[in-house]
Amino acid sequence: MPQVRIIAKNFMDMVASLPAIKLDKLYNNVFICEAILRSLPPLAKKYVLQMLYITDPVPATMMEEWVLADGASKHRVAIDRLIQLRIFSEISDRKKGTSYNLNPTFQNNLQKHIISGGVLPREPMNSDNAIKLPSLQELETYALKQWECFLLQLINSGHGEKLTGISSSMMKIFQRGLMSQRDRDGPRLTESGFQFLLMDTNSQLWYIIREYISNAEERDVDPADLISFLLELSFHVTGEAYNLNTLTDVQRNTLKDLADLGLVKLQQGRKDSWFIPTKLATNLSVSLADSSVRKEGFVVMETNFRMYAYSTSKLQCEILRLFARIEYQLPNLIACAITKESLYNAFDNGITSDQIITFLQQNSHPRCADRVPSIPENVTDQIRLWEADLKRIEMTQAHFYDEFPSKDVFEAACDFAREWGGLLWEDSKRMRLVVKSEIHNQMREFLHTQSK
Amino acid sequence: MPSVASKLYSDDVSLLVLLLDTNPLFWSTTSITFSQFLSHVLAFLNAVLGLNQLNQVVVIATGHSSCDYIYDSSSTSNESSGTGLPVLFGSLLEKLGDFVTKYEQLSKEEEFENGIASSLLSGSLSMALCYIQRVFRSGHLHPQPRILCLQGSPDGPEQYVAVMNSIFSAQRLMVPIDSCYIGIQNSAFLQQASYITGGVHHTPKQLDGLFQYLTTIYATDLHSRGFVQLHKPVGVDFRASCFCHKKAIDMGYICSVCLSIFCKHHKKCSTCGSIFGQSKLDVSDKKSKAPDT
């Protein structure tokens, strides 16, 4: 079965895939150097720090001595990453072997950052000139509300409710890959769309941002500019107001879209307007790293397949509805049950049992999360069993051969197919066989030579 | 203790509690000035904060007979002055200045009869542990804590019991104590602290390259330590101080009830009050003296 998976692919892969000139240009910005440093695997961070004041190339053999034998694979990963991002440049010398050098621009900028301490990308506005700033709490609820609105719109775009200011063309771009446009029943979530909903907020955010950036060229925006602006944004202070006048036109337009996603809050004053970054924006560079960020869960799963979700969110309810039957809803509690039918429905939509189980595990209520296992074993087993029920038959594309001229030819053909690992079934009495369609061409050639 | 691992943000988010030796009696005797030293340390703190957005740094100053929090990255970032980034070291320097002037008076009045210019390591260690304990209890998620002692002054044997108690509670909390000793003699306290808690102890040879030592050894997060070659100590000075005269001793008397250590024989344990029998040494003394009387 072909597996289409949406992986919240690391944003840095995107940065790494930028052309070399653009990447070098990005490193002129101190904040990007800093954000990139933060996104590196722990070991790579250590190497960068260690080599921060070393100007001569460091031989690879020497670096290998820095790690224990257990860490060899991690060492390889770290070095590869550094080279990919052009932070390390490789110098090969026939006598001394390979050695690595830190990218001078990157090195300079980081040195500056570390000695002088970071300077803010731009000065926040003075709070005294009649700006009423929302409290951090308000800002967070605003951000989450905005983001949920966006997600809801993403799934139910068919219902035509206009919740956020995102243009429908932009929405189409986001939906690409997540929704399939069917003629009759309107857009429907695809398999990857369901997987998207089960991811945590940060991964979802990055998926959307990634789509946004990859689409930038169609809107005549340089992806490198966009990346640098987004990374810079993550260094602003949450809850402070920044004047819009300090931004370029492109950045201002981008900001409008980001406000719809809940990354920033826009406010209009009498004279000028300003933006306030929310937690979603300042966390952007946190979630860049591979390490997963854990958050508090809300689901209590019982051994009798009933599930209680302490949540007021409409979105969470929709997500649970993907694989469970909602029985009733109280103001802060959703009671539902996992049934065979609800799960078949989910499997039908391409959600796998593992995804459901990991979702339940990741979101289990703190009280349950302390228990081992956090989800009752009989439930996880049953979910897996029901999925296995649906997969009793496996389909393989195949070709059928019969009417062989002689037993010898038939047996030779069987052996040939076996050698290629494509023999599925044979009936020596009536001289018939079935092979996988991948080796059909080879088989045909083989039979031609046999018949000559 | 509840499972610590489940309450961590992720593997490499760390909380570094730095114990900074500001003892003026030590800094008047060193090859590098305090300001040079401080610039290395500030750069190191910047680097630690730069490694991960969730990293947290707390600095505690250790004076001759005083200690105080002088910097906490988690609290200053919420201030309205917009110091979410290391501009904040202005505030550190300011607090440090306050700290030094405040305790200048105190230390002038005191007499240094014994001539040992030690710092109040036990005080700052317990402050660090209190802070970490608060972090453990505060919320659901917390960074992985570790303590780094940047010490230059010699050990104060009179603090032996307090320091050892702090070390053992750090061990219980599974908080490693890293130590970087920049003084001339060796510090038995710090060697033992790092040895017992699984931290790293190192005495840098060249102090002008302190930043490199700090980043290479002490910036490594606990997760990465599992697969990185770190400095291994050659030997650990396990000497204890006696409870009666606070002297470091190689051999002494131990109370069999409460394990207090004494350099001389006593009739009664000063800690728990148990009465000791005669020591063998004394008995043989008396025997030899008997014929004379």
Describe the structure.
The complex is a heterodimer of chains A (452) and B (293). With 452 residues, chain A is α+β, with helices and mostly antiparallel strands. Chain A folds into 4 domains: 11-116, Arc Repressor Mutant, subunit A (Orthogonal Bundle), CATH 1.10.10; 136-282, no CATH class; 299-390, no CATH class; 398-451, 2-Layer Sandwich (Alpha-Beta Plaits). Chain A is 47% helix and 15% strand. Chain A contains 21 helices and 15 strands. By secondary structure, chain B is of the alpha/beta class. Chain B folds into 2 domains: 5-227, von Willebrand factor, type A domain (Rossmann fold), CATH 3.40.50; 240-292, no CATH class. Chain B has a 6-stranded mixed sheet, with helices on both faces. In chain B, strand 5, helix 7 and strand 6 form a beta-alpha-beta unit. At the A-B interface, helix 3, helix 4 and helix 7 of A face helix 2 and helix 8 of B.
Distance between the termini of chain A: 39 Å
β-strand percent of chain A reads 5-15%
Strand arrangement in the largest pleated sheet of chain A:
9-10-12-11
Structural class of chain B: alpha/beta
Topology:
The complex is a heterodimer of chains A (452) and B (293).
Chain A (H helix, E strand, L loop, with lengths): L10 H6 L3 H7 L3 H10 L2 H9 L7 E2 H5 L7 H13 L3 E6 L3 E6 L1 H13 L19 H20 L12 H8 L3 E4 L3 E4 L1 H8 L2 H14 L8 H11 L8 E2 L5 H13 L2 E5 L4 E5 L1 H4 L16 E3 L4 E4 L4 H8 L3 E6 L2 E5 L2 H9 L4 H10 L3 H4 L7 H14 L7 E4 L5 H13 L3 E5 L4 E5 L3 H12 L1
Antiparallel strand pairs in A: 1-3, 2-3, 4-5, 6-8, 7-8, 9-10, 10-12, 11-12, 13-15, 14-15
Chain B lengths: L13 E8 L2 H4 L6 H18 L4 E7 L4 E6 H4 L12 H21 L11 H18 L5 E8 L8 H14 L3 E5 L6 H10 L3 E2 L7 H9 L21 E2 L6 E2 L3 E2 L6 E2 L17 H10 L4
Parallel strand pairs in B: 1-2, 1-4, 4-5, 5-6
Antiparallel strand pairs in B: 2-3, 7-8, 9-10
Family (chain B): Belongs to the TFB4 family.
Subcellular location (chain B): Nucleus
Protein name (chain B): General transcription and DNA repair factor IIH subunit TFB4
